[in-house]
Amino acid sequence: MKKIAILIILASLPAIVLGGHKRFYTEKPGPDVFEEMTPSAAAEVALVEQVLAKRLAYRKELEKLKSFYEQSGNQLKLEWVQREFNSLDSAPRYKYIIEAEVAGEKLVAKDSIPRATALYNEGFELYNKAFLIPIFTSGKKLRLALNKFNELIKEYPASDKIDDAAYMAGKIHEHFKDYSIAVLYYKRAFQWNPDTSYPARYKAARLLDYQLFERDEALKLYRESLIKEKAYYNNSEEIQLRIEQLTADAEKVKIE
Question: Are 50 and 68 members of one domain?
Fold first, then answer.
């Protein structure tokens, strides 16, 4: 009986120390803890900010180590640190927070804000410069342009330039083959300004159709584009033909 009592006490100690299942996660939470967390925009932002802060802290510590070995003259370990820097710089670093996603679909492009217009112009200029050399596209300039467009959306959500910025951001993400993100930005362009002068519905429809294979939604946007964007380009016949093809395919699926 004494052995059983001791085992029961030992088994209950972790719950007593940790305060039971209500305790928030530590540095290395188990998968069961993440299952209990409720996803939300605020939680995502907080977690992403932690990742960014730790990335920066890691780089700063490496810089201290590099400085130490430079002063001590340890060339071997200095080379090791430099290799780690190189791997750090070459590793993918995703932003995770997409401005168009955070902003939501209910913004309205309405106010003429000089600073927002200036940001858009800066981004547009960078975008054009990225394609100055026909056989070479500057990815760096495109990313700088994207930063300008996202800054505009974040800082001036009531600007009459948010739909323009969203459309241009969509083009950049499409260039980088980030098709799902590109579709999101194209959608924001016409959600924020239903009368936007850009063929955002058509661009989103084509990506949904040929890249993401979400053809029900593509068909819906093709139809909207045919009505609302026909003045922008001269491919109404192409759109109509694709609508007929997708409609016929949908009917076949229903019959089968």
Answer: yes
